[in-house]
């Protein structure tokens, strides 16, 4: 039975996990509700298996999420370590710029993860430690990413302003409604199609369905 994680399946997992705020957002009222958290993991696992014809268990899925969170934490640590301390001459400063493909998809967790923490994340359903699948992404973080150089402090300040604006946009994106979340999922699915003719056909069919439903909605309204 194949239980290997393909990038497309991991992408779907990230989107499904993001929707279940009770699993990662401490301020969520259901965050401490074990029953609802168990239901959330069941829902994610079922949806993932159905979409990609997989046979993952809840343990497999929670372990993969733990692995992703661990690697995000390492990337955030590298960014933090490369930032200026505010002392001495910082001309030519190098800022770590992550290139791990899943980094930006996981940024909704940034405020909920302490960089390089050794403490277990709140992932396990029964509050016991989950086994982390360390192999697949761990190797990618060693010597991973590229350096961004700044010739003076002004450039660093400009970069920080951009970083703050990006962070603000990311916070706004956490409030996505169901339609926007679905659109993001469709985008991820479309990117898995390599044949341009099939892509055009998919676009045409989607637009036809949307037009039909919009006309129907107008008659109902």
From TrEMBL:
Pfam families: MADF_DNA_bdg (PF10545). It comes from the Eukaryota. Residues 12-114 form the MADF domain. InterPro entries: MADF-dom. This is MADF domain-containing protein. It comes from Aquatica leii.
């Amino acid at each position: 039975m194949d239980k290997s994680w393909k990038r497309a399946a991991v992408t779907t997992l990230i989107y499904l996990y993001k929707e279940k705020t009770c699993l990662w957002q401490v301020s969520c009222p259901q965050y401490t509700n074990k029953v609802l958290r168990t239901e959330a993991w069941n829902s994610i696992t079922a949806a993932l298996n159905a979409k990609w014809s997989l046979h993952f268990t809840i343990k497999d899925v929670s372990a993969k999420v733990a692995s992703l969170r661990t690697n995000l934490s390492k990337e955030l640590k590298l960014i933090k370590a490369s930032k200026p301390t505010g002392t001495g001459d910082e001309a030519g400063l190098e800022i770590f710029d992550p290139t791990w493909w899943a980094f930006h998809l996981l940024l909704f967790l940034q405020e909920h993860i302490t960089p390089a923490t050794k403490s277990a994340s709140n992932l396990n359903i029964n509050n016991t430690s989950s086994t982390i699948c360390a192999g697949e992404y761990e190797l990618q973080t060693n010597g991973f990413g590229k350096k961004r150089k700044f010739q003076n402090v002004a450039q660093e300040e400009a970069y920080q302003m951009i970083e703050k604006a990006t962070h603000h946009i990311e916070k706004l994106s956490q409030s996505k409604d169901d339609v926007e979340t679905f659109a993001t999922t469709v985008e991820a699915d479309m990117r898995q199609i390599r044949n341009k003719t099939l892509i055009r056909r998919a676009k045409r069919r989607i637009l036809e369905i949307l037009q039909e439903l919009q006309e129907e909605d107008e008659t109902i309204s």
